[in-house]
Amino acid sequence: MKEESTGGHEGGNPLHLDTSWIPLEQEQLYRTCLGCLIENKIPFILAGAFALYAYTGIQRNTKDLDVFLPAEHVRSALLALSAKGLRTEVRDGLWLAKAHKDPYFVDLIFANPNKEIQIDMGWIRRSNTVELFGMGIPMIALEELIISKIYVARMDRFDGADICHLIRGSKGQLDWHWLSRCLGRDQELLLWHFVLFQYVYPGHVHLLPTPLMDRIYESMSRSRINPPAEKTFRGMLIDPVSFEVDCRMWGYEDIRDTKPLVSEDGSRM
Question: Based on the structure, what is the number of domains in the chain?
C-alpha cells in the first residue's frame, strides 16, 4: 500500500446482507470463520463478493469468502481457525493464506500478488459495519475495494466491470483524492478505468471526477515530453503471465518485490 489509510466513514444502522441464496453448509463455514476471528479479536475486514453485493446489489456466489487482514495477524488467524477444525495453509507468502472445509474455503488476504497493496490497520479503521449471519461484520470501505481490484487485469480475469459497477452504485460519491494518493505512481490505472466507465456508461459521465481526470492526463502528457528511461516497465504488476515474455526475451526488468510477507506458518517476516 502506498500510504496507510486514515480516517473513517460515518456509521449508522448496519446494512443487512441477505444470505438466503447461500447453501447451508457454505453459510456454516463462513459463520464459523467470521465468528472465530471476532472471538479472537483478530482485526479483519470483509471484502470480495460480499462487499461487491453490499455496494452494488450484485449477487455472485463463489466457493470462497474474502477476508482482508494485516500480515502481522495472519498467524494468529490461522491458529484460531485451525483450533476450530479447519485445514489452514499459507498458499503464497506474498499475499494469501487459506482456511478450508471442502468444497468451500476462506481466503485470508494480506496484500495483492504484486505487493503494491498491503493491508494495514488503516483499512480496518476505515471499514463500515454490515449485518451478516446475525453478526456485525466490519466491511471494506468502497475506496479500498476499488484499490483492491484495480490491478486485476490479467488475461484470465479483469475486475474493470466491478469497478464500473462500484462507481455507478456509489453515484460517484467517492473520496477520489484519497484514491489518487493511495495509488501514487500508479494512478494512471484510475484514468484507464475512468475511460472504461465513460465508454460503458456515457450517460453517467457526470459521476466521474473531471478535475482528477484532467490532472492525471496532464501528468501523462508531461511524461511524453520527458519520458522515463526506455526500459521502464510495469507490465508485470498487472499480468505476470502475459508480460513475462517482455522480461525473458526483450530485457525488461520485473520490478515486483517478491520477498514473502509471511512465512509458511503465517508469521510476519
Answer: 1
C-alpha cell of 54? 453490499
Q: To which H or E segment does residue 183 belong? A: helix 176-183
- Asked whether residue 210 is assigned to any structural domain, the reply reads no
Q: How far is CA 215 from CA 190, 202, 209, 210, 220, in A?
A: 11, 21, 10, 9, 9
CATH of the domain at 77: 3.30.460.40
pLDDT higher at 142 or 5? 142
Give dist(CA 62, CA 51) in Å, integer: 13
SS3 content of the chain, % helix, strand, coil (to 5): 45, 15, 40
Q: What is the CA radius of gyration of the chain?
A: 19
DSSP characters over 106-173? EEEESB-TTSSSB--HHHHHT-EEEEETTEEEEE--HHHHHHHHTT-B-SS-B-HHHHHHHHHHHTT-
Is 205 part of a structural domain of the chain?
Answer: no
What pLDDT does residue 156 have? 93
Q: 98-135 burial string, b = 16+ CB within 10 Å, else e?
A: bbebeebbbbbbbbbbbbbbbbbebbbbbbbbbebeee
The larger pLDDT score, comparing residue 177 to residue 4, is at 177
138: its cell numbers: 466490519
- Structural domain span for residue 99: 15-140
